[in-house]
Specification:
S-adenosylmethionine-dependent methyltransferase; metal ion binding; alpha/beta; MeTrfase_7; 361 residues; metal-binding; 7 strands; 16% strand; 7-stranded mixed β-sheet
């Protein structure tokens, strides 16, 4: 059986170079902004700030999977501003509490770049919390608001079944469950469910009663084949590019067969079942949204690939090793996306972003 790459230890590209996440996360920021009103509505109508602040002088907010900015700073400021507005409306005669914001990501995340980019004018104390959000990160009942955007679709690890040669779950020649047999899809689904259960179990310990959690992640309408989505088209083309490179001797076939993207897009039905089975949070809002309503013309394939590379390049570097090979992988992907641009642009994107607002019971 092929060796598993430790995907759980691979953050986004750090620094501020051409393929850094800091310079290539504009799309993610726009996607978060699409549901900004949903998050603010939850704070205004579901967050009892008088109750939450009755036993503390500090409101604690956490952003899980913060990466290196700048999106996390925008989100944290928007949430803080909204809580302040709610506090002034609900408690007009009381002093506004202080705020602490905890920026969480994997230990290997480029926290240096993150904190060098912190806004100079901010009304919160900032701290970094390294660790996987699939486990405990904070003391019990210490958080009042948790934000987790464009990160929960990352699995803690690849399902091991994908590497069992000759089995129904062996994902030979593919890099994802897109266009794969049902057994492969099932292995991904089970891994996501286990990860999500761990995530909720940890947050149930950390979030105070009445505290809120806003999740924004990759989603899909129930029953829709992933190959119909823009990302699904891209994953299939990525697999083809790798197979071509194997045929040309640039990489080996074994390297292709043992490489799988640790990404899963959940439907609202799947997410609802997991949350309700856990029972620690009530679902205040859940739906699918269009992450790119601003996109009305052709897709810039180079720009899109740069954003993908900024988020995923460490996976490729860890698996294939040679930087020249990694460069060629993404160069080939761009060319294939351009060749199949009509297919990409006609693929379904209306409701492929899942947002969930949860309240700790």
């Amino acid at each position: 059986m092929a060796k598993l790459v430790p995907y759980s230890s691979l953050p986004t590209n750090g620094g501020s170079g051409s393929f850094s996440y800091q310079k290539n996360s504009y799309y993610q920021g726009l996607a978060v902004n699409v549901v900004k009103d949903k998050v603010e509505d939850a704070i205004i109508h579901k967050m009892d700030v008088e109750r939450l602040s009755s036993t503390t002088t500090t409101i604690n907010i956490a952003d899980l999977g913060c990466a290196v900015g700048p999106n996390t700073f925008v989100s944290m400021q928007n949430i803080l501003d909204c809580i302040v507005r709610k506090y002034r409306a609900q408690c007009p005669n009381r002093e506004i509490p202080e705020f602490s914001v905890f920026f969480n990501d994997l230990p290997e995340n480029d926290f240096n770049t993150l904190f060098r980019s912190l806004p100079k004018e901010r009304r919160y104390f900032a701290a970094g919390v390294p660790g996987s959000f699939h486990g405990r990160l904070f003391p019990e009942a210490s958080l009042h608001f948790v934000h987790c955007a464009v990160s929960l679709h990352w699995l803690s690890r690849i399902p091991e079944e994908l590497l069992h040669e000759g089995s129904a779950t062996w994902n030979k020649g593919r890099v994802h469950y897109t266009s794969a047999p049902d057994e492969v899809v099932g292995a991904y689904r089970a891994r996501f469910a286990a990860d999500m259960e761990n995530f909720l179990r940890a947050r149930a310990k950390e979030v105070v009663a009445g505290g809120l959690m806003a999740i924004l992640t990759t989603g899909i309408p129930h029953g829709m084949p992933h190959a119909m989505l823009p990302a699904g088209v891209m994953y299939d083309l990525l697999g083809l590019a790798l197979l071509e490179m194997a045929q040309e001797g640039v990489i080996t076939e074994g390297q292709v067969d043992s490489f799988n993207l640790p990404i899963y897009a959940a439907s609202p039905q799947e997410m609802r079942e997991i949350v309700e089975r856990d029972g620690s949070f009530s679902i205040e809002a859940m739906d699918l949204a269009n992450p790119s309503p601003w996109l009305t013309g052709p897709v810039n394939m180079q720009e899109w690939t740069n954003h993908v590379r900024a988020a995923m390049e460490p996976l490729f570097a860890a698996h294939f090793g040679d930087q020249a090979i990694v460069d060629e992988i993404f160069d080939r992907l761009v060319r294939k996306l351009v060749e199949r641009s009509r297919e990409v642009e006609s693929s379904y994107r209306e409701k492929i972003q899942l947002y969930v607002i949860l309240r700790r019971v």
